[in-house]
Automatic annotation (TrEMBL):
Organism expressing this protein natively: Aegilops tauschii subsp. strangulata (Goatgrass)
Record keywords: Carbohydrate metabolism, Glucose metabolism, NADP, Oxidoreductase
SUPFAM superfamilies: Glyceraldehyde-3-phosphate dehydrogenase-like, C-terminal domain (SSF55347), NAD(P)-binding Rossmann-fold domains (SSF51735)
Cellular component, GO annotation: cytosol
Domain Glucose-6-phosphate dehydrogenase C-terminal: residue ranges: 219-377
Record carries keyword Zinc: no
Entry keyword annotation includes Repressor: no
Reported function: Catalyzes the rate-limiting step of the oxidative pentose-phosphate pathway, which represents a route for the dissimilation of carbohydrates besides glycolysis.
One GO molecular-function entry: glucose-6-phosphate dehydrogenase activity
Domain Glucose-6-phosphate dehydrogenase NAD-binding: 37-217
Protein name per its UniProtKB record: Glucose-6-phosphate 1-dehydrogenase
Length: 381
């Protein structure tokens, strides 16, 4: 869609290209009143990524004034302008005219994550807008920019108070962030709780790493490239390192981060997805189910992780963040070795490392090849 959008600069022609593509793909026509609710609107993800992403969609003509209404929801006491001011600070460099127009689409509702009162207020805000829009439609998208511990109560509240009315054309969809639970038991419990409230096609589980260009290019690099194809195995590769580092700390995110730590925040989802794309076999096709099947196979081939191949750490000063408990022993750095028991990778360690408050910001995949036989450069190092 974005490639198509790049060929013509007008917003209305992008919208019409979008509509004709939707028609070709036999998707339901997307038009009429759309409300996007960002729950956890006071938080880090919302200000750094969700609202800026919505702004870029708006700027490119995919969200039309008059059709779209954006509502931030959280417990923090904020006015509409208070939220707009926070968002504006993350849209530096954008056109002032577009930013002001975009911010006018945004309202704020304050309430808790487990009481009917706040969600009744939220529903009233959405319904009033839908009535005034008068298009007879009600598309409602709820984005949970929140710690997973509150997903079940928030989803119950949405189901009870905020569903799109069946009398109107439209839908209700819910986007949930990673990490999906804390461990296998809580992930399964969360899955069944959400499954009781929503149909599978109403639920979207997101991992923003899968949208990164580098990550998307991995399939092309591996499977459309004669140079790497014959080398990508234990005969040629010595080890593979998948590394994430950030040069900033939690910065007030202790409310979420301290409950989860770096393994659940980064390694279990982002780095494991990258690991799968690097290590899996070629999928039958690019269909999502075929890619998923190969990812599952490689994960099933990983041996249990050995304690002696895990290093954990916490950066000095982590507990100075007022949102972090004084006695926290949550890791902010972790390094683990994965060993894949299959024909391609037996004996090749995959070293996954992630850390906050380090000396640089980078995400990288290092494939270290074995020395060449008869290496004439060896004596130089
Ligand atoms: N920050 C990022 O760059 C990214 C974050 N994510 C994911 O987004 C989700 C939210 O992360 P992030 O925004 O960074 O975290 P924050 O700590 O900023 O939390 C977001 C909001 O949730 C509320 N909140 C925080 N802690 C709790 C708690 N213990 N119980 C109830 N409500 C709480 C707060 O709102 P209030 O008090 O006003 O209600 C807060 O503003 C996580 O699942 C994370 O994995 C995903 C990708 C990137
Ligand atoms: O999911 C998360 O990702 C961000 C890093 O993402 P990036 O795309 O900005 O590199 C990380 O800061 C955050 O802790 C984590 O929740």
């Amino acid at each position: 869609l974005f490639v198509m959008a790049g060929t013509d600069s007008s917003a209305s022609s992008r919208q019409s290209s979008f509509n004709s593509l939707a028609k070709d793909l036999e998707l339901p026509l997307e038009q009429g009143c759309l409300t996007i609710v960002v729950l956890g609107a006071s938080g880090d993800l919302a200000k750094k990524k969700t609202f800026p992403a919505l702004y870029h969609l708006f700027e490119q003509g995919f969200l039309q004034s008059g059709e779209v209404h954006i509502v931030g929801y959280a417990r923090t006491n904020l006015s509409d302008d208070g939220l707009r001011g926070r968002i504006r600070a993350y849209l530096k460099g954008a056109s002032e005219e577009h930013v002001s127009e975009f911010l006018q689409l945004i309202k704020y509702v304050s309430g808790s994550y487990d009481s009917g009162e706040g969600f009744e207020k939220l529903n009233k805000e959405i319904s009033d807008y839908e009535m005034s829009n008068n298009s007879g439609s009600s598309r409602r998208l709820f984005y949970l920019a929140l710690p997973p511990s509150v997903y079940p109560s928030v989803c119950k509240m949405i189901r009870t108070y905020c569903m799109s009315p069946t009398s109107r054309f439209g839908w209700t969809r819910v986007i949930v962030e990673k990490p999906f639970g804390r461990d296998l038991d809580s992930a399964e419990e969360l899955s069944s709780q959400l499954g009781e409230l929503f149909e599978e096609d109403q639920l979207y589980r997101i991992d923003h790493y899968l949208g990164k260009e580098l990550v998307q290019n991995l399939l092309v690099l591996r499977f459309a490239n004669r140079l790497f194809l014959p080398l990508w195995n234990r005969d040629n590769v010595d080890n593979i390192q998948i590394v994430f580092r950030e040069d900033f700390g939690t910065d007030g995110r202790g409310g979420y981060f301290d409950q989860y730590g770096i393994i659940r925040d980064i390694i279990q989802n982002h780095l494991l997805q990258v690991f799968c794309l690097v290590a899996m076999e070629k999928p039958v096709s690019l269909k999502p189910e075929h890619i998923r099947d190969e990812k599952v196979k490689v994960l099933q081939s990983v041996n249990p992780i050995k304690d002696e191949e895990v290093v954990l750490g916490q950066y000095q000063g982590y507990k100075d963040d007022p949102t972090v408990p004084d006695d926290s022993n949550t890791p902010t750095f972790a390094s683990i070795v994965l060993r894949v028991h299959n024909e391609r990778w037996e004996g090749v360690p995959f070293i996954l490392k992630a850390g906050k408050a380090l000396n640089s910001r980078k995400a990288e995949i290092r494939v270290q090849f074995k020395d060449v036989p008869g290496d004439i450069f060896k004596c130089m190092y």
